[in-house]
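S1.2 Input.
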Amino acid sequence: MFFASDNGAPVPQPIMEALLRANAGAVLSYGADAPMARLRAQIREIFEAPQAEVHLVTTGTAANALSLALYTPPYGAVLCHRHAHIAEDECGAPEFFAGGAKLHLIDGAHGKITPAGLEAALGTLGGSVHSVQPACLSLTNVTEAGTVYTVDEITALAAMAKAKGLPTHLDGARFANALATSNASPADMTWRAGVDVLSLGGTKNGLLAAEAVVLFDAAKSWELELRRKRAGHLTSKMRYVAAQMEAWFDGGRWLTMAAHANAMAAKLADGLAAIDGAELLHPVQANIAFATLPEAAHARAKAAGAVYYNMGGGLCRLVTAWNTTEADVDALLAAFRG
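S1.3 Output.
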């Protein structure tokens, strides 16, 4: 009963087999290899963006920090939700990579920025040499609360940013889960909605260590190349990163795995709603559930071997993954119920 994080899930066999295939012989390094060329073409086709440039890294923090540094000068501010991953879980990496830029935090229910919240934030920045200047909007989909922005919501917020001359970054650590929930196309949820750069996460959805910075503004590609190298995130044996993601996309595997994780979270949420004393804090729209339960329920679950984050005061975070089974969910719910 492992519900601590989708980061803790194993790698599916087809991904491991792709790595073994990529291990045959010697190839050119630093991305000048056939798997990288195929992956670039694959992403361009999936996103309906023939102009897109693709740069691989091995961590989501690197993808986010490099993407934001690309658009944010040292005197600039990245507008993001107060509980965004870049604000709470990246140890200042976005500020560091941008040379000292500031994160301007925006409140919003269930992990989402609203147009009213963004408008208020934009009204407090810039206009004076004494303040940081608004530089970039960063949205997260799936949010840290486990909710999902719709295409219309992203479009509205990106349009407000564009009206002020700001690009939009999308932290897509769980982008596949957002797509699986909304049934939106990758293009509709990104560049058609006004997104300039996407941090496309694979590690939380079955990959060993593979994230992609997808640039819809190809003119920024060379600068990203240089920033990635200078930051120490240009992997020499890139074929092993590319091969993972290529196999992940093949046959829609990335969406199938994400949809399964989402379905297990929905089953979990339904079960929690039926337990006396349990309460869900946010709508469960992807593969994350936040809930409060009596301490006795937590004690029973831990005694039964459940692994998840107990955040104190009865609050816990439960995360499902591509390999979570119905039996896992049933066992956890049974332990909670007692």
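S1.4 Remarks. Residues 253-273 form the longest helix (21 residues).
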